[in-house]
Amino acid sequence: MRITVSQSALMRALTVVSKGIAAQATLPVLAGVYIRASEGTIELQTTNLNISIRHAIPANVEEEGAVVVSGKTLANVVKNLPDAAVSIAGGPTGVEVSCAQSHFRLVALDAIDFPEFPTFDLQQQVELPSALLSNMVDKVYKVTSKDTSRPILAGVLITVEDNTIRLVATDSYRLAVCDASSETSSVEGSFEAIVPGTTFHDVLGLPSMTDTVAIGLTESQIVFSFGSTTYVSRRIEGNFPNFRQLLPQSCNTTVRLDGAQLAQALRRVSVIALSNPSVRFDVDADAGLLKLSASSPDQGEAAELLGVEVEGSSLSIALNYHYVLDCVNAAAQDSGLTLELLSSMQPAIFKSYASINYLYLLMPVRM
Question: How many Å apart are CA 358 and CA 364, to the nearest integer?
Answer without folding.
Answer: 19
